Amino acid sequence: MASAQPARILREPVPIDRRAADNLRFIRDTMERAASFTAVPGWGGVVIGITALAAGGVSLGHSPRAQFSIWIAEALLALFIGCVGIRMKSTRLALSLQSRAARRALLSFMPPLLAGAVLTGVLYQSAILGAIPGLWLLLYGAAVVTGGAFSVRIVPVMGLCFMFLGAISFLAPIAWGDAFLMCGFGGLHIAFGIVIARRHGG
């Protein structure tokens, strides 16, 4: 009587080129994460967008100076939300805010914002309030582009969208300033925030 042969499990060999491609992709992604500031808070951006839409709704029908005050308050609130969001995401993902990429991102992000603050004061003192929405969108976008150079790829794309919107706002009637601010700080933050949250860990 013939003895039973042990069953053999045949596995299809994995092509070496596919295995090499997977390994290279893993190495590339690991190096990109190590060299990038990935603690950009997607959900924090969504919350900022919601508060910006609320601020725009509140400011409708008010005088230009009252609208300016409302948006300044919104900017301070957004700054607080952004800082908390970065801290929470970095803690959850065990990312250091003292890393080289984080420091570079912050140092690149700040100069356009500081320039915007100075120019905002000049325009306010000169009573040229109609140019402020375009200025804010343009320089905030520049800050996001420069800071985003050390972050994930979608961040500088968001910055370019802010810059484009700011440039367009200079060609529109002054009365549309509030709408442009809502579209930028509200709509763009929400849209890009959702994408960042889903693709890059919250």
Share of residues in helices: over 70%
Mean pLDDT across every amino acid position: 84
Q: What distance separates the N and C termini? A: 65 Å
Please report which band the strand proportion falls in: under 5%, 5-15%, 15-25%, 25-35%, 35-45% or over 45%.
under 5%
> What would you call the shape?
elongated
Major sheet summary line: none
Number of helices: 7
User: How many structurally independent domains?
Assistant: 1
Uncertain runs are: 30-35
**Order of SSEs:** HHHHHHH
Overall number of strands: 0
- How big is the Rg? 23 Å
Structural class label: mainly alpha
Task: Give structural notes.
- The protein is an all-alpha fold.
- Helices cover 74% and strands 0% of the residues.
- Helix 2 (42-59) runs antiparallel to helix 3 and helix 5 runs parallel beside helix 7 (177-199).
- It starts with 15 loop residues before the first helix and ends with a helix.
- Mean pLDDT is 84; it is low at 30-35.
Question: What keyword list fits this structure?
Answer:
single chain; 202 residues; 74% helix; 0% strand
What order do the helices and strands come in, and which of them pair?
Layout: H1 16-35, H2 42-59, H3 64-92, H4 100-125, H5 132-148, H6 154-169, H7 177-199
Helix pairs in contact: 2-3, 2-7, 4-5, 5-6, 5-7, 6-7
In short:
The protein is an all-alpha fold and 202 residues long. It has helices at 16-35, 42-59, 64-92, 100-125, 132-148, 154-169, 177-199.
